[in-house]
């Protein structure tokens, strides 16, 4: 059995071929797709966060809106670039969104990836400390966030406050109990997956990772998952670790499906660079008739290792079509693979 959700990058474009023409369209359709996904029986609605781009950027108002419109589905990010974040303010926003959703927030974080502008985090007021890299800064922001989400008091109270204080040191409010155990890390390498495990964060692994050895993408990703689980066990955490992997999967059940994705049936892994120093492997797109798709997915080692599958959706094709994409997987593929 697997949890199955969607991951949207929240693009919008004024192209005549886009059904998501404006930022307003992107936000409203994100809420509507999450509602539709819950009605179809999906388990998660996740959103990528990018800055300086025509994509969704500020996740917590959106997640709170989805939390208010839904009752069961997990809501989350995949992922927030921690180079840009004030961890104290983030703890307040995340706590509020989680309380609105009744404890359904699954917060995915990462050290970040190449963005639309050079060192965009500098415009947000952040700069690595002396001797640190931007990745070091992201991890330090994350460590502060994790500590704050524990809910322990750390701030000295004013002896003459405007309102009465509880006894002792004060914490960031509102605090949402349990949120600390629902933090995920988007890891690009085996080493960062193990680091996430030692911090007690769940693992998010996307459709690309650092190329570590030259094996097929799904094999390398499965190795990453096993490294994460080993480090988690060694760290002695008491709560159950979770692992999500992302995939582009399209079951071709209509002429429109075949028109959009029929040409992706021969897709394969490919190699590229996410920066000047990092060689990466990008996973294939799966697109085939349902019975063929079942056979292909049964051989994907990383999906077999994971408990959660996030389906990347082409959000600019509109809510109705993306609901159809999800329904195809939930109805025609997942039961045949034992995921439902």
From TrEMBL:
Keywords: Oxidoreductase. Its EC number is 1.-.-.-. GO terms for molecular function: oxidoreductase activity. Residues 10-250 form the Luciferase-like domain. Pfam families: Bac_luciferase. This is LLM class flavin-dependent oxidoreductase. The lineage of its organism: Bacteria, Bacillati, Actinomycetota, Actinomycetes, Pseudonocardiales.
């Amino acid at each position: 059995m697997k949890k199955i959700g969607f991951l949207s990058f929240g693009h919008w474009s004024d192209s005549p071929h886009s059904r998501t023409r404006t930022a307003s369209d992107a936000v409203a359709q994100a809420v509507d797709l999450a509602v539709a996904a819950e009605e179809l029986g999906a388990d998660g609605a996740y959103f990528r966060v990018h800055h300086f781009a025509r994509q969704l950027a500020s996740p917590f108002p959106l997640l709170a809106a989805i939390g208010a419109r839904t009752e069961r589905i997990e809501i989350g990010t995949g992922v927030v670039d921690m180079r840009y974040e004030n961890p104290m303010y983030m703890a307040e926003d995340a706590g509020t969104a989680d309380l609105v959703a009744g404890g359904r927030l699954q917060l995915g974080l990462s050290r970040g990836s190449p963005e639309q502008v050079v060192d965009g985090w500098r415009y947000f007021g952040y700069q690595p400390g002396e001797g640190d890299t931007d990745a070091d800064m992201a991890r330090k922001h994350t460590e502060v966030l994790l500590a704050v989400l524990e809910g322990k008091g750390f701030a000295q109270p004013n002896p003459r406050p405007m309102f009465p204080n509880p006894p002792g040191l004060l914490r960031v409010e509102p605090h949402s109990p349990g949120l600390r155990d629902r933090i995920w890390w988007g890891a690009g390498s085996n080493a960062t997956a193990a680091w996430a495990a030692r911090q007690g964060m769940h693992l998010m692994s996307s459709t690309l990772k650092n190329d570590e050895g030259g094996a097929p993408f799904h094999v390398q990703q499965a190795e990453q998952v096993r490294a994460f689980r080993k480090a988690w066990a060694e760290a002695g955490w008491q709560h159950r670790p979770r692992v999500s992997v992302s995939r582009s999967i399209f079951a071709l059940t209509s002429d429109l499906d075949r028109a959009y994705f029929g040409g992706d049936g021969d897709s394969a892994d490919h190699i590229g660079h996410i920066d000047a120093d990092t060689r990466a492997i990008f996973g294939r797109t799966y697109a085939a008739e349902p019975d063929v798709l079942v056979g292909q997915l049964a051989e994907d080692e990383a999906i077999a290792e994971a408990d959660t599958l996030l389906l990347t959706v082409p959000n600019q094709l509109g809510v109705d079509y993306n609901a159809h994409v999800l329904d195809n997987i939930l109805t025609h593929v997942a039961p045949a693979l034992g995921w439902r």
